Amino acid sequence: MDNRYLYDTFIAKLTQLEVSISKANVDQQQLDQIKKECTEIQSHIQEELQKLQKYEIKRINEKLSQLFTVISRIETGLGSRVFRFVGEPIPRNALSLNKSSEQELQPIDFSSNNTKPELGDLNGVKYTIRQESSFISNVANCIVTSSKGLSQIHFKFGHSNVLWLVANGPVFIEELKNSIIIVDCHQLRMRKVENCQIHGTVANNRFVIEECRELVVVTGEEDSGLFSVDDFSDPKRTARDRTGSVNIKFVRVKSNGDLALVSITEIHDGELSRADRGKLSSLLAGIE
C-alpha cells in the first residue's frame, strides 16, 4: 500500500468515527463498536510505523487520543456533549455567505477558529491538507498545499513558506511572514501578514486585510477589472488595482503563480530533500 494512501486511510477512518460518536443518539452498543475500531486502528498503526512520517504518526495519535477521551466521558456520563474534536469544523452558519455579507465585509474575527491546531510545528516538509475545515499552525520553511474542495482553511503562525490553498469557502491567514501565498477560494482574510506575495483567485475579486504590511498582489497581464482590498486597519482606505496603498501594491506579470505551482507540484509530501529546499529558497529569494 502506498505510504501516503495508508495515512489518508487512517485519517479518513478516524474522521468517520468522530462523526459517529458525535451523534446525539449514540448508544452503548455503538460506543463499544467505535471503541473496538479505535483499538484495531491503534494496533494496525503499530504494524505500519515504519511506513509513516513522524508528523503523520503524531496527527493520528492525537485523533486517537481524542476519541478515547470522548468514549471515556460518554461512558461515565460526564461532559459528553461539551467536548470539541481537534479540527472540529466551524458551524455551517458561520461559513454561509449571502450577497449582503459580500458587499459589506466585516472586520476580521478569528476567535471562532482559535481551537487547538489539527496540525502544527512543521519545519522543512511538504504537506498536503486533506482534512475538512483545517487549522494549521506554526509552520516554517515548508510547502503546504491542499486538496480541492475543502470547506475552509485557517493558517496561523509561520514564515518562509509557499502556501497553495484551495477551498470552496474562506481561507484565513494569520501572522505569516516572508512567504508566497497562492489561493483559489471564496473569500480571503488576512491578519498580521507581512512581506508576502499573493497569487491566485478570490471569488468576488476582493479580500480583507488587518494589521498587514508589505503585501504584493501579483496578477496576470490578461486579468481585467478592478481587484479591491478592504484594509480594516484603515477603514477609509480601499486599495484598488494599479493604484496600491500604504500596505499593499499590485504587480502585473505574464504568469499568475504558474512557475511556483509547477515547482511545488513536482515535490512529494514528506521531508524536503536538499534539492527541494533549494527550490523553496529560489521561490522565496525575491521576497526575503
UniProtKB/TrEMBL annotation:
InterPro entries in the record: CAP/MinC_C, TBCC, Tubulin-bd_cofactor_C_dom
Transmembrane feature ranges: none
GO cellular component annotations of the record: cytoplasm
GO BP annotations, alphabetical order: post-chaperonin tubulin folding pathway; tubulin complex assembly
Residue runs in coiled coils: none
Record Pfam families: TBCC
Protein origin, superkingdom: Eukaryota
Positions of the Tubulin binding cofactor C-like domain: 133-218
Protein name: Tubulin binding cofactor C-like domain-containing protein
Organism of derivation: [Candida] railenensis
